[in-house]
Amino acid sequence: MKKNKRTIANHRPYAYSVLVVLAIGLVVFLLKNATDNKQKDGVSPPPPASTQQTPINAPPSTTLPSTTTTTLPPVKDDEKSLANVSCQKASDDLILFAKELDKQPYIASYTDKEPSQHYLGRTLAKLLDTPPINNQETSDLLTVIKNTSHLFRVLGPKDLSLLKAILEHEQGSLEQRLASLYAWSTRGKECQDNPTLQIQLPLDKTYEYAAFFLNTLGGQSYLARRDPVIRVLIRYYCLLIVHQADRQGINSHHIDLPYHLKAITTEIASTNSLENQTLYLTTLETIKNEHQSTLPKGRP
Fold first, then answer.
1. For the chain, how far is it from start to end, CA to CA, in angstroms?
2. Alpha helices in 103-170, H assignment, sequence order
3. Residue 146, Cβ neighbours under 10 Å: how many?
4. pTM, 2 dp
């Protein structure tokens, strides 16, 4: 008797589904082991990274109040250009910030009475000397996991907790501090060799972290867990760093500047919690025009 073809079971889809289930189970197992190890150290694990390396845009949320007792006044009109901020002023602002941190009760448990400037300088050097993985991050799962936990692996729970505490407690002055830090970092060797401010921010090393936050699953996963205002400020200054690198011909990871310009401009324009929102948008528009003027005719 001839069999009806419709009654014959096809086992290929079943076999394929078994392989898929096994693959998913392996991924879950690896992720669980990685996050369980962090939970043992008292640090919350990062959420799973998305499968798309696109800017993360989130609506603004309520920000925490600043506990800093003394904050800088709003940026004046004649200072609203990074080109007008002198090395001395930027240095003075950062030194003042470090002195204010020394007065905060939450800092003492981390620094053991060591001046905040020295502690933070050493922490920053540790990060810059151990860059994340920016090339072929998604080539295998373990590389993605390493990048997702990069800051924890380099800094450890104590130093990472301190940085998170500073970001949360000092939001009231964060915009101005980041502006001073960026301005100071662009003033050249004579500014960064200031013996009073013992921090080094070479462009080739800061570029690695700018690429990490803008263009990798690990970096975007970290920013996704931050307050929206902190997230957009970090992304903004990362873009400025990439722009510097692009101008100097060291954009070695080929970060797509126009793509990130458009995404970050949209994000800043939709955020109502930025004191210097107009300045940021003007700066981004200037970078956009400068980049377009360097493109060959006919290229978008």
1. 67
2. 105-111, 116-128, 141-148, 150-169
3. 16
4. 0.70
